[in-house]
Amino acid sequence: MSGHSKWNNIQGRKNAQDAKRGKIFQKISREIYMAAKAGGPDPSTNPALRLMVDKAKSANMPNDNVDRAIKKATSAGEGEHYDEITYEGYGPGGVAILVHTLTDNRNRTATNVRVAFTRNGGSLGETGTVNYMFDRKGYIAIEREGLTVDEDTMFEDVLEAGAEDMEILPEVFEIYTAPEDFESVRDQLEVDGFTLAQAELTMVPQTTVQLEADQQEKLDRLVEKLEDDDDVSEVYTSAE
C-alpha cells in the first residue's frame, strides 16, 4: 500500500465534510435504508447494516437518524428503491477515479456525474475503464495517541488478527484486510482492546499517481463537486 495513505485523505477532507454534515447524514441514511431493506433491521445478523451503522457513528450521526432509517426500511409497503451504479473515469494528471452512487434516477445521476467530470478537468469513461486498477480491501485505522504498544508488537497483533498488511504513520496505524476477513479482523481488534478510528470496506489503488500542485487543486475541485451530489456515496482516486 506504499504511497497511498487513506487516513491523510480522510483527514484532509474532514473540515469540508463537517460543513456539509446534513447532506452526509442524508446519504448515510439512504445507505442504512438499503442495507436494512435487503438484510433485516438487526446489525448483529446483517453485516452490511452494521457497516453502515459504523459509518454513521464515524460521521457522528445521531442515533435517532439511524433508527429512523432502519424503521423506514422495515415498515410495511414497498418503500423507496435505489440502484447502485459505479462510474469510472480519469481526472487531472491521469488519476483514475471511481464514483459509487446510490440513486433513484439513473438519468439524473449520469448527467450530474458527467458534467462534474467535464467541467473540472476530467473525462468519464466506460465501465471497466479503471475499475481493474483498484482492489477491494477492508480498512481499519487506529490512532496512536495514548497507545502503549510498540510498532513491532502492533504489527504482530494485527497479523494474528488476520490482517494482510499494516502501514505506520506518525499519528495512526493503517490496517488492510482481504474483504472476506474484514469483519473478523475488526471484531478481534476490538476484543483486543483497540479503539478503531475508522473501519470500512474501501477501494485501494494498486498504483498511485503523484500530482503537481495545480493538478492536485483541480482534482480536489472535481472530487468536491462529485461528493456534493446527493446521489454520490463514495469517490476513490489513485492520487497519492
What order do the helices and strands come in, and which of them pair?
Layout: H1 6-12, H2 14-18, H3 21-39, H4 47-58, H5 63-74, E1 83-90, E2 96-103, H6 106-119, E3 123-124, E4 134-143, H7 151-161, E5 165-168, E6 172-177, H8 182-191, E7 198-205, H9 213-228, E8 232-237
Antiparallel strand pairs: 1-2, 1-3, 2-8, 4-6, 4-7, 5-6
Can you tell me about this structure?
The chain is α+β, with helices and mostly antiparallel strands and 240 residues long. The protein has nine helices and eight strands. It has helices spanning 6-12, 14-18, 21-39, 47-58, 63-74, 106-119, 151-161, 182-191, 213-228, and strands at residues 83-90, 96-103, 123-124, 134-143, 165-168, 172-177, 198-205, 232-237. α3 packs antiparallel against α4 (47-58). The longest helix has 19 residues, at 21-39. The mean pLDDT is 91. Pfam families: TACO1_YebC_N, Transcrip_reg.
Q: What labels describe this entry?
A:
240 residues; alpha+beta; 9 helices
In short:
With 240 residues, this protein is of the alpha+beta class.
Radius of gyration: 18 Å
| Order of H and E elements | HHHHHEEHEEHEEHEHE
Number of helices: 9
Structural class, from secondary structure content?
alpha+beta
Number of strands: 8
Mean pLDDT score, rounded?
91
Low-confidence stretches: none
Main sheet characteristics: 4 strands, antiparallel
The largest sheet has its strands arranged as: 3-1-2-8
**How much of the residues is beta strand, in percent?**
15-25%
Using the alpha-carbon principal axes, give the shape: globular
Please give the alpha-carbon distance between the first and last residues: 11 Å
Helical content class: 40-55%
Subcellular location: Cytoplasm
Domain TACO1/YebC-like N-terminal: 5-75
GO molecular function, one term: DNA binding
Pfam family, one: Transcrip_reg
